[in-house]
Amino acid sequence: MSNEELIKLIDTWGFTLQTTEEGTEFLTFTVRKEDLHEFCRKLKADPATHFDLLFCVTGMDWGNELGVIYHLASTDLKHEIVVKVMTADRETPELDTVCDIWRTAEFHEMEVFDFFGIRFKGHPNLKRLFLTPDWDGYPLRKDYVDEANMVIK
Amino acid sequence: MGIDEKKRFLDQYQGSGMEYDLPKDFPGKVIPGGNGGNIVVTALDSVINWGRSNSLWPLYFGTSCCAIEMMQTGASKHDFSRFGFEVARPSPRQADLIIIAGTIVNKMAPVLRRLYDQMAEPKYVIAMGACAISGGPFYYNSYSVVKGADHVIPVDVYIPGCPPRPEALLEGLILLQKKIKTEHAKTKVNPIDGFDEGTL
């Protein structure tokens, strides 16, 4: 399905979305965090979109907002999109998990939690993946401070 | 680790009940080898050093892209077996030399130190590439990268480059051979003695 057809179809679902193709390789939808789980479920369940492959999950710190970027593909319909979600709450950022939709998200979300501290509601085993369990802070956040190890430039 | 208590020469055995019977006019020094097999070190040193420096067995410690250049140095085009390095070991127990080819992160640093401690003496270290020398491109703003392998273990030869070309690694290896050829069993110190491990 082409990008125009995808936009036309997904607009009929009635979510609050920001859609852009500017400055990016993929068609990008920015979704409100309340809608994230329902939107993703619909993307996979609808036979016209059928996004059955989550091939990348990226944690992101935009300075004010924290967020997650999901890269989706359909292995039989051969189209790809990007779904962005963000939250302005830096103290206890929380998003819905998508690991019940795409099982691979389980480890990716552990990694995002590890480095950005975003909690995923409904994740079965959210814990530190790469860092030690007693690690203090989330090192890939822009405001992370570690005076012993980091030389700031 | 017991390095300090190690007895290197016979005169260190004085008064311990383990004295060896040597003639007064014996020309050289004798290193106790245990169970009676002693080593005579005189002008033989140069012969021994020649042998040691030309059969250095490296332990590969390739943690990133420098390891690719290291493999190329071992492959047929550059072929470091011409200089006696062909027996690359995956085990520290059998290695004389550790080539740190890549980034050392905080999680890997204890592993590197442990491998170094497991190697048999005499042992040598080559830091290959910018990461192993100083952290390289990860020096600034990195929470995980050790700013140089010499924060963890003492390094003999530094090879700059990102990554160094195989010719540079060969140059470094030959430099190390030259260093070994000037060594003397009498004056050789353990590189870990007085090594500043820093505080953290």
Shape of chain B: globular
* Overall pLDDT confidence of chain A: 91
Across the major sheet of chain B, the strand order is 3-4-5-6
How far do the termini of chain B sit from each other? 21 Å
Kindly report the average pLDDT value of chain B.
Answer: 82
Q: How many helix segments of chain B? A: 5
Q: Report on the biggest sheet of chain A.
A: 5 strands, mixed
Describe this structure in words.
- The complex is a heterodimer of chains A (153) and B (200).
- Chain A has three helices and seven strands; from the N terminus they run αββαββββαβ.
- With 153 residues, chain A is of the alpha/beta class.
- In chain A, strands 1-2-5-4-3 form a five-stranded mixed beta sheet. In chain A, strands 6-7 form a two-stranded parallel sheet.
- Chain B has five helices and six strands.
- Chain B has helices at residues 44-53, 66-74, 109-118, 129-134, 166-181, and strands spanning 29-31, 39-41, 58-62, 97-101, 124-128, 157-159.
- In chain B, the strands form two sheets. Chain B has a four-stranded parallel beta sheet with strand order 3-4-5-6.
- Chain B is globular.
- Classes of the chains: A alpha/beta (153), B alpha/beta (200).
- Chains A and B meet through loops of A and loops of B.
